[in-house]
Structure formats: C-alpha cells, structure tokens
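#struct-pred
JK: can someone run the complex with S-adenosylmethionine? inputs below
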Amino acid sequence: MDKKEIIELLQSTGREREILLKRAAEVKKQVVGNKVYFRGLVEFSNVCSKDCLYCGIRKSNKKVVRYNATDSEILDSCRFALENRFGSVVLQSGEVSSPVFVKRVDNLLKTIKKLSDGELGITLSCGEQSRETYARWFESGAHRYLLRIESSNPELYYKIHPKNKNHSFERRLESLRFLKETGYQVGTGVMVGLPFQTYDDLANDLLFFKEIDIDMCGMGPYIEHEGTPLYEFRGSLKTKAERFDLSLKMIACLRLLMPDINIAAATALQAIDPAGREKALAVGANVIMPNLTPCIYRKEYQLYEGKPCLDEDAELCRNCLEARIEISGNEIGYGEWGDSKHFANRTKK
Ligand code: SAM
Ligand code: SF4
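RT: done, structure tokens with the ligand placed:
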C-alpha cells in the first residue's frame, strides 16, 4: 500500500470501509490467529518529569496527587496476573530517570521474575531512558518496551510537546533505536485525532512503523483533558465517534501493512465506546491490557477524561473482559506470553 491508498482507506465509508475491516480481520486470523493475549497493566507511578501538552498527568498539572505504588502493591498485582494466568504484565509510569528510579525498576524486574519463576513476561513503558538503563532493565528481565512516537511528523510532534530539549523528537527516535539494538521487542504508536493532525500525517505514521520495522503497536484515540494546554483546541477536534472510527481504520490498515506484529486494543477506545477494545480485536488487534493498577491510585492516573474502569477491581475487570472477548469470537491465550511473531521472524533472519 502506498500513501495515497492508505489515505483512501482511512477516509473510506460504507462498503469500502466494511471491506477494509473485514479484510484486516481475515489477515489477522490467517497470520496471528484468533488468540488474544493479556498484559496486566500496572500504572505504578504518576510522577513525571515531562510536560507533554496532551497528558493529564503532565508535570505542571498541579491538581494531580502524585503517587508511587509500594513494591508490595506492585507485586500483589503481578501475583494476581500470575494466578489468573495472564502470561505477562506491563509496568507503566511517568518518565523519571533518576538513579533511584532506575534502580527501583531494576529490583522490581528481578523480584517479579523470581516470584513467578520466570513465568510472567514483562513489558516496560517508562519513557525515554539512556542506552545503559535500557540494557540494565533488559538484563534484569524486561523483554518488551512500549514507547509511542506520538506522531512521526516532527512539526506535529512539536505542536503537542513543549519545544525544549526535554521533549526532543530526535531523542524519541534515538530511544526507539536503542531499544531495538538492546534486543527488546519494540512497540510504538500514535494518538489518533490529535489537533492539527491530518490524514497525510496518519498515513505517514503507518509507513513510519513499517520503515522502522516495529514488533508491536498501540494506537488509540486522542481524548482531551481539561488540565492540559491542548484542551484549548478541543473545538477543532473530530467528534469522539469519528476519532474512534479512525482508530479502528488505523488498526485495520496496520494489520494489512504489517500482518505479523502484535497490535494492542488501547484503553482509550473503551473510554469512547464501552465495547471499544472488543471492536478493535475484531478488526486486527490481538493484545489487551486489563488494568491491574491498585484501585486507590486509578483516579490519579487520568491521562484523559472518561478513562474507564476507575473503580473496578481486577477480578471484576477480568470477568467482564473474558465474557466480551469470547462473544467477539476470539480466544484468550491464557498463561502464554504471546510474543510478537514479527520479532521472531525478524530475529531469525
Ligand atoms: N510516560 C510514558 C510515556 O510517555 O511513554 C508512559 C506513560 S504515558 C501516560 C502512555 C501513553 O499515554 C502515551 O504514550 C500517550 O500516547 C498516551 N496518552 C497520554 N495522554 C493521552 C490523551 N490525552 N489521550 C490519549 N492518549 C494519551
Ligand atoms: Fe509524562 Fe508520559 Fe504523560 Fe508525557 S505522556 S507527560 S512522559 S506520563
């Protein structure tokens, strides 16, 4: 697919849209199968040194009560994942790179590996770090890393981030390169429906994923948050329903473009449509991240308005997901890591 074709698909409606979604579902089934893999998401800290203009937990949002979950709370969530045969966990946080933070994550990785006897796969999503830190965490047991590029267009990148060296597009790219060179399965992604974002940008994002040869992707709708500078532009946004639909089409196009990667059904989809993640599974996604963050912290990890599952405990979350996934015709890959086939294919070459 070239850029022109991708743009046409992203703008498709009616029968053309149906064909795109159906074709993506077929390709998913043929190439990665209809298993859905769980990654228990633990948002272990909302302390962040950055000021991304879209994010509710940005450093300058003084209304947020900052937290650091204790080690024992984090380990309890991991134990829950293990006992419920989730296969993997994702440790996510704001971006901090102090030696204390680096060491803390390092210790947690070792402890999680030990408590699960190596059974739990671990994905990290802790932002930009030095090459040494990425290597250290990899050595200690993390084997996948999520770092969204947010937009592959530097001009747009600087419209949604402050223009300073703490928010450098070049550094973002370099971090993705470091992660790959270290040996991680690398995941990236973008927000869909950002202010100033065009169809051309979105098509270029998909081609960028192909060019840097990613293993995993997480894409979901951009959702405004009152306590952020981008809120000012809310009047220029597509409707939430349009952002939702465009996210589904992005997922479908990506499945056609990169058939063997893992694609996550982003939580933000569920903030717009209660069955949003299941709809994404039906058009090409194959990974879902049930929230295992201790309930007491969830309301302080509000990246955007209407973030779902704020007061649902993990058990409830699991039961409701299970039923929905089965209804959507998919099967849950219990106890499996569900690694990216693309990673296996690219590293055996
Ligand atoms: N701090 C790490 C980072 O930025 O990579 C990980 C946590 S960060 C909260 C995870 C993702 O949340 C970001 O990559 C971003 O795409 C998404 N996010 C933040 N604000 C959002 C918003 N308003 N709407 C949708 N997604 C948002
Ligand atoms: Fe911090 Fe990540 Fe939010 Fe940016 S997106 S402000 S780095 S938590």
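RT: quick notes.
The chain has a mean pLDDT of 95.
Strands lie at 35-45, 88-93, 121-125, 144-146, 185-188, 191-192, 216-221, 262-265, 287-288, 331-332.
JK: thanks, will look after standup
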